Amino acid sequence: MTTTNTPIYDSASPRRPIVHPFVNIWTNRDLIKLLVGRDLTVRYKRSVLGVWWTVLNPLLTTLVYWFVFSAIFQRSAGTEVPFVIYLLSGTLLISVFFSQGSVAGGSSLISGRTILSKIRVPGEVFATTAALAAAVNFLIGTVLLLIIQPILGWPIPWTVVLVPIPTLAMLALVTGFGMLIASAAIHFYDVLDFVRVILQMVIWLVPTFYPIEIIPENLQILVKVNPLYSYLVVFRGFMYEGVFPPTWNLVYMGASAIIVLLLGVWVFSKSWKQAAVRL
Amino acid sequence: MTKSPPSVVATNIGLAYRMARDQAGSMKEFAINMLKRQVVYESLWALDDVSFEIGQGEVFGVVGPNGAGKSTLMKVLAGVLPPTSGRVVVRGLVSPMIELSGGMNPEMTGRENIVMFGVLLGRDPAYMRERVGPISEWAELPEFLDVPMRNYSTGMVARLGFAIATDVKPEILLVDEVLSVGDEAFRRKSNERLEELMEGGTTVVLVSHSLATVRSMADRVMWLDHGRIKMLGESQTVVQAYQDSV
Fold it and tell me: Taking CB atoms and an 8 Å limit, are A118 and B91 in contact across chains?
């Protein structure tokens, strides 16, 4: 009677802390695809402009900062690149991808609790979905950047084809970071509020909106130790500068991505049994 | 014919909700309590040393007063809650029919929710897209398929949930009080479908406060009280004993 593909759930089957989540993510890829699509569309379902907000959001943010910096402070990037491109690239990578993705990942277990408390779906599916949705938002934004660059008279360098490298690294970082926050948020709800404030600060700790040159030389090290700085350097280098970033930036980016991802997956895995009871 | 393996084997399962007394909901509270050395954990055993087997195709009823651990048991069988102690093995595709509106997104259309919900239950998206027609037909709302579900009535949501969970013979069906939703016509229809499934060899675990339902449908019944098995056996006997005790 029983066919070979009968799913068997055994509560005693050992769970390998690092491998298991990746297996779960792979076996649930169809579900993740649907959930990402839902994440991207549902948010704007009731709005007139719909998914266009995905593009409008970073664009409007950029315009606000552009106005504040160039009109009020009479400041521009200090680089040759038009300031709008500098701002938009920073906004996309740090606010849209890193910050929003991490918050979404951190709250994914709580927002998915109605499903998680009823149907056996691995929690990592929801955390991954949040990071992927942020990645898609980011990529839509880079398409916008590709359109704006020539309009502002800035050429698109061939290195643009390498943009997937910082994108993948950021995806790993956001997935891991989101899982770390989610594991903590299950125990204390206010972790999320706390994280939101921290992330607001982080955006200003790296040159998202201002050029690093405005920081005194002897203090620049404080910016450079932040792994996010390397992500910015690599992304901007590939996206419009058309230059290869220094090796240490590439290494720092790759290493931090892998470490945070593995750490997040491990902690998430370890705390899952407790989390299930608390949801 | 060789005897097919049981659908569910539960061995000494226990499930503890660890509760900090005066549970700290925020980090601040927790830190303060920590400093005062006031974090006292208490374990509340919602299930305690529960062992049973459910054969393939069996209809297994669970009765007991509120707080006996019936819903917790269903969550353990659904694989949502890993047991704190003991072991549970569930063989087959599980369709949990628990207050289904939870898994549905009100902003998405009926069609999108059918696919999403089916995939959540472990089915293939392409296959679910094919099933949209039959499912909506059974739930009697094909004309509402492309309407966001927030415009559905409670009854419509319940009908759709039932239709998805019972579409294609699930191997194990967990039924937790769902039969009480909907109007008379829907109740009759859903009971018919349940009976069809039971005859077709689906294993059913049934939790209900309606003792008449349990008595007439279940082959065997387990009586839970404070997380422990008080009685387990043939449905007439157990339901009668439970009824006498109340």
Answer: no
Topology at the third CATH level for domain B8-245: Rossmann fold (3.40.50)
**Is A137 part of any domain?**
yes
- Closest Cα of chain B to A54: distance in Å? 18
> Could you give the CA distance from residue A110 to residue A190 in angstroms, rounded to a whole number?
12
- Give dist(CA B189, CA B195) in Å, integer: 10
Would residue A24 count as lying in a domain? Answer: yes
Between chains, do B103 and A190 touch, taking CB under 8 Å as contact? no
DSSP-based three-state secondary structure for A124 = helix
Q: Where are the beta strands (DSSP E) in B21-141?
A: 41-54, 59-63, 85-91, 94-97
pLDDT recorded at residue A75: 61
pTM of the model: 0.87
Q: By the CB < 8 Å criterion, does A5 face chain B?
A: no
Residue A11 domain flag:
no
Cα-based distances in Å from A234 to A88, A268, A274, B122: 15, 29, 39, 40
The total number of structural domains in chain A stands at 1
Task: Please write the tens of the pLDDT for every residue from A241-273.
Answer: 999 999 999 999 999 999 999 999 999 988 877
Q: Would you kindly state where each structural domain of chain B is located, as residue ranges?
A: 8-245
CA distance A228 to chain B (A): 27
